[in-house]
Write a sequence for this structure.
């Protein structure tokens, strides 16, 4: 691998984690109590295609790491 290709590869590998974002939140019920183990799904806004999904913790918190910055969050 020549020097130019190696530098290009290193630049892309350094940039790609910066493009991802963390979507964080807390699911609560109508009484403001944490909703444990809820399904949290990130969908593509254009076609509602599944991007990524997680389950909230016992305290209702969730984190989705995804490069998608124009999505829809669906909780069930």
């Amino acid at each position: 691998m020549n020097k130019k290709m190696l530098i290009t590869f290193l630049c892309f590998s350094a940039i790609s984690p910066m493009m991802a974002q963390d979507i964080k939140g807390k699911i609560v019920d109508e009484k403001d109590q944490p909703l444990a183990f809820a399904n949290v799904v990130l969908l593509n806004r254009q076609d509602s295609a599944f991007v990524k999904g997680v389950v909230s913790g016992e305290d209702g918190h969730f984190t989705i790491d995804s490069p998608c910055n124009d999505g829809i969050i669906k909780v069930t």
User: Anything to note?
Assistant: Strands lie at 21-26, 39-44, 50-55, 61-66, 71-75. The first helix runs from residue 3 to 19.
